[in-house]
Write a structure and sequence with these properties.
mainly alpha, Four Helix Bundle (Hemerythrin (Met), subunit A), three-stranded antiparallel beta sheet, two-stranded antiparallel sheet, elongated
Length: about 240
């Protein structure tokens, strides 16, 4: 794994906690469905909205812990990466203010977590409507509604993996720019799951302020899009 890669333990912790949310969401949806029908759409909507609102303090606490752990690991990686650099540069890194970066990441993550119940409700409603209008067989629709928990868990895992990488990337950029580093080397993890478009970027010099355009993904840096495990290796000139 390249330097600055997020630790697996943080990812597992985040995924485990968000899976719990997904299971509760699935239980709520099942409470208000029989077969391919939603028994009380208004009550289901109210229950999911109430759960979404109730999630906020829990989500703030969880994301605060996760972001602190990511930041701690990121600082340790910087210590290793700059061990042969000047003491003044290392002091600057240690004093880099990243509170605003952490807050922005937390706000985004809390909203994503709160969206899980709402998205699940919309999905269930769409399935039930398709069954009612003949767009889906009743037995097929019933099975899809029963998959709410697993589908929501998949969404939760995607959020955990993507947001950890994005937060780590934001910390790398903030600390890089604090010491005057505007460029980085794009690094992949080097395994068979790396996107071909990202493999093409591996080892290339890129700019934090002008990320490359990737077909189908737009302009972004390493770790800034769904399931991207790539990282930025800062170019430091002394």
């Amino acid at each position: 794994m390249p330097i600055f890669s997020p630790t697996k333990s943080v990812q597992r912790k985040y995924e485990t906690q968000l899976r719990k949310v997904a299971r509760i969401v699935g239980g709520i949806v099942e409470t208000f469905t029989v077969g391919d029908e939603i028994t009380n759409q208004s009550a289901l909507d109210d229950a999911l909205l109430s759960y979404s609102i109730a999630l906020e303090p829990w989500a703030k606490n969880l994301t605060s812990q996760i972001i602190q752990e990511i930041n701690g690991a990121n600082k340790r990686d910087w210590d290793k990466y700059t061990k042969d650099f000047s003491a003044s540069l290392r002091r600057t890194l240690k004093s880099t203010p990243i509170g605003h970066v952490a807050l922005q990441q937390q706000l985004e993550q809390v909203e994503l977590i709160k969206s899980l119940p709402i998205e699940a409700g919309l999905r269930a409603q769409k399935i039930a409507q398709n069954a009612a209008t003949g767009g889906m067989r009743a037995d097929e629709a019933a099975q899809e509604i029963l998959k709410t928990s697993s589908v929501t868990q998949s969404r939760a895992v995607l959020i955990a993996r993507t947001e950890i990488a994005k937060t780590n990337a934001a910390f790398i950029q903030a600390r890089s720019q604090s010491i005057g580093s505007s460029f980085y080397i794009w690094r992949t993890v080097g395994d068979a799951q790396v996107r071909s478009s990202h493999e093409h970027l591996n080892g290339t010099r890129q700019s934090f302020s002008n990320p490359p355009f990737i077909p189908g993904e737009g302009n972004h840096g390493p770790g800034e899009i769904w399931n991207c495990r790539c990282t930025a290796e800062p170019i430091i000139t002394v």
